[in-house]
TrEMBL record, chains A, B:
It is found in: Cytoplasm; Nucleus. It catalyses: tRNA(Tyr) + L-tyrosine + ATP = L-tyrosyl-tRNA(Tyr) + AMP + diphosphate + H(+). It comes from Arthrobotrys flagrans (Nematode-trapping fungus). The keyword Transmembrane does not apply. GO terms for cellular component: cytoplasm; nucleus. Gene3D superfamilies: HUPs, Tyrosyl-Transfer RNA Synthetase. Keywords: Aminoacyl-tRNA synthetase, ATP-binding, Cytoplasm, Ligase, Nucleotide-binding, Nucleus, Protein biosynthesis. InterPro entries: aa-tRNA-synth_Ic, Rossmann-like_a/b/a_fold, Tyr-tRNA-ligase, Tyr-tRNA_synthase. Pfam families: tRNA-synt_1b (PF00579). This is Tyrosine--tRNA ligase. PANTHER family: TYROSINE--TRNA LIGASE, CYTOPLASMIC, TYROSINE-TRNA LIGASE. GO terms for biological process: tyrosyl-tRNA aminoacylation.
Length: 456, 456
């Protein structure tokens, strides 16, 4: 708002954050240079954005309200490179889907998005200037430091890929190539932020400020994961689904630490109600015994929750109501926008229909039939793990047929070690990208570990 | 030669090599496809090419004689990235200098260079297609495998740089982007070659053959190093210098293993005399007691050397004569080519003239004067270590003045630990690229180690 003083702007920008590096940079831009702070937030466009995205979105709303110029980096290239799980066209569709959804979410929480800019990573991360900067940065950052930087962000596996060392460098360079003053992210990004602070000056670039959100537990308990459909509430889930999933959410009575529902109220619902209020006061309503209790601060709510004045049930009902109120305009926009629907279909194409039971018959090219003995005799797959095959013989799944990958996923989910081992053999035989194979083998070892542990 | 049979071509291509991977690929191209084998050899354009370059050049002569299409990759980008010791313009001048010199060497040994192609790394290694391939490859190669691949090629230091992990990937990708059938290098490249064999197919690219030279000891004993002027014979050294340096060469009587002079005869002088002979027979002449002994094989020469029939002195004289005969046309070409001389000057600019003794006077901006106390009181520097400062305050040396870097080099050379430590402090204070600083600190630790060891 034009009416905010510089001090108020800075307070709003840093509200609810766990840590800020380079506050002087922010103060300099807003107080001395008297211009909008330019800030970026990046997201790899892989799984569907879920309700956990409300947390950073709420901060983006703060930034926009404080007059910042906000850039959202749709990191399609990162998403593509993350084990090459999806082809570049697919992650670019996903980036567009993210753009639709993020705009919709921000509109839903009542923020003007005039100063919001979306940038596709692939639009500049393949440029000569960017590449030379990756090369230059790789010549001053040690392996050790790159590894350390990604420790909390890059998936830690037994045989880490080289790409995991390049990512932190790219994230640092994005600050320069997006022309921002500050980067925003979760506190899990801290080491990457530090890498940027320590190394950008060596390339002749200025140091940026870094704004860090605390790590907020997911609504369903633990980290909300996009890849497990049962652990997350999709931004386009129906009101009934939201109610159902919240009912199942972990929410221990009298416990506020690690309580995802309380955290959602604290980091999303209260700040948003505050942004939308004419008097600037937060307002979160819980109904108990037919009476409305209005909370203006999270502290009061936590107090009552610890004292058991309000319990998980009332809290969940209130949260469901408030969340559905936020999701309603998003669902509505989706329902009324053919483009939105179209891009959703392109970004997350439905899995190939499971083959109907005709097991006696040879299927398609006969390729599957040849493998039949190894992968047969299992129920139709319930989830689809998009296969990435190395150029070579097409996999059954690539031909729209359920194949060993699906069976592997299935076996994994049901904890069937021997079935998974058979499926892996079949997968190895049909030719598969090494990264994928490694991933599957890792999953199998995990499963075997569980299996052994279970037997002991 | 058009007159060589396919079998003869293959024999010539693989002659004197220690190892060949993918001989079937070579046979397929030459015998089945009946076309010239396309092969590449890469060199990072840093220090001046010295006489050690005759060893791979002799193999290139074989390839060309066997009708191969030979590509020389002038890896200017690699050179630039190698700790960013020299700016990109400088390494590109050096790449041009390499091109002049390599052509001159090949002409000197009598090979047609019609089928020789020079490619600058920077001409395609910054392209979108190449970069995407680096990204893709980094997503299937593990950190561990990239590290292992570079183990014998990338300088092993306490804090290895990330660039050292990217180099092997680039060297592998160059095979595809240069469109060759085979890569040639020393056997020290073996692990990088293996990385290429194992991973290019995952990107949908074909597997290349790999031709490996044995590791040949330098003329001056040990590895011939471009960075130590005393350990190497420059391709443009005068006849007198060659004589002088060969006289100093390590060449133990009766020992042929690890004997750089014998190795030079084996891998350069004998093969070249053979290429130039009308009857195809090698001929290496040693004068002893006024009589000429003609060697047609290295085996006979080694036999006589072990038996002490010929000693280091006769061998050195004969080698000096033969080497000078090879160098004469190169020197002549240089002397008669203004372009050659011009590019040499641009590639290896003379160090700034050492400041004359005017110590009482303030120099230039006064910047040096401020540091006087720390770096003063030492003799004028004899060698110049081109400083690469981070953008920021100019270093004295960047202004053509002797500065802390020179003093550091000087102190290092004279083993003065405390002087070097003072110089390092000054260097840190004037702002310096971290990679450079790390390097200098490493040198200082080494020196301190020596110092301590000396004191014990």
């Amino acid at each position: 708002m034009a009416s905010l003083t510089p001090k108020e702007k800075i307070a709003l920008i840093t509200r609810n954050l766990q840590e800020v590096l380079g506050e002087d940079i922010i103060a300099d831009v807003i107080e001395k240079q008297n211009r909008p702070l330019k800030i970026y937030w990046g997201t790899a466009t892989t799984g569907r954005p879920h309700c956990g995205y409300f947390v950073p979105m709420t901060k983006l709303a703060h930034f926009l309200r404080a007059g910042c110029e906000v850039t959202i980096l749709l990191a399609d290239l990162h998403a593509f490179l993350d084990n090459m799980k999806a082809p570049i066209e697919l992650v670019q569709h996903r980036a567009k889907y993210y753009e639709f959804l993020v705009k919709s979410v921000l509109k839903s929480i009542g923020v003007s998005i005039d100063k919001l800019r979306f940038v596709f990573g692939s639009s500049y991360q393949k440029s000569e200037a960017y590449i030379m900067d990756i090369f230059r940065l790789s010549s001053i950052v040690t392996e050790h430091d790159a590894k350390k930087a990604g420790a909390e962000v890059v998936k830690q596996v037994a045989s880490p890929l080289l790409s995991g060392l390049i990512y932190p460098l790219m994230q640092a360079l994005d600050e320069e190539h997006l022309g921002v003053d500050a980067q925003f992210g979760g506190v899990d990004q801290r080491k990457i932020f530090t890498l940027a602070v320590e190394n950008l000056p060596s390339l002749g670039y200025k140091t940026r400020a870094h704004l860090m959100n605390p790590m907020v537990p997911g609504l369903a308990g633990g980290k909300m994961s996009a890849s497990d459909p049962n652990s997350k509430i999709d931004l386009l889930d129906s009101a009934a689904d939201v109610e159902k999933k919240l009912k199942k959410a972990v929410c221990a009575p009298k416990e506020v630490e690690g309580n995802g529902v309380i955290a959602f109220v604290e980091y999303v619902l209260i700040p948003i109600s505050e942004l939308g209020a004419e008097d600037g006061k937060a307002r979160f309503v819980i109904e108990k015994d037919g009476q409305e209790i209005v909370y203006e601060t999270i502290e009061k709510l936590k107090e009552d929750y610890i004292a058991d004045t309000i319990g998980p049930k009332e809290l969940k009902v209130a949260t469901t109501l408030a969340l559905n109120k936020l999701l309603d305009p998003i669902r509505e926009e989706y329902a009324n926008s053919p483009e939105f629907k179209e891009i959703e279909k392109l970004a997350y194409p439905p899995p190939p229909a499971p083959e109907k039971k005709k097991k006696e018959k040879k299927i398609g090219t006969g390729y599957v039939a040849k493998k039949k003995g190894e992968v047969d005799g299992q129920a139709a797959p319930t989830t689809v793990d998009l296969p990435v095959a190395a150029p070579g013989p097409s996999t059954p799944a690539a031909q729209g047929l359920p194949g060993p990958y699906l069976r592997f996923t299935e076996a994994i989910q049901n904890g069937k070690v021997s079935a998974a081992r058979d499926a892996l053999k079949a997968i190895e035989r049909i030719g598969v990208a090494p990264a994928k194979l490694r991933e599957l083998k890792g999953q199998l070892s995990d499963l075997e570990g569980i299996d052994r542990a279970g037997r002991e």
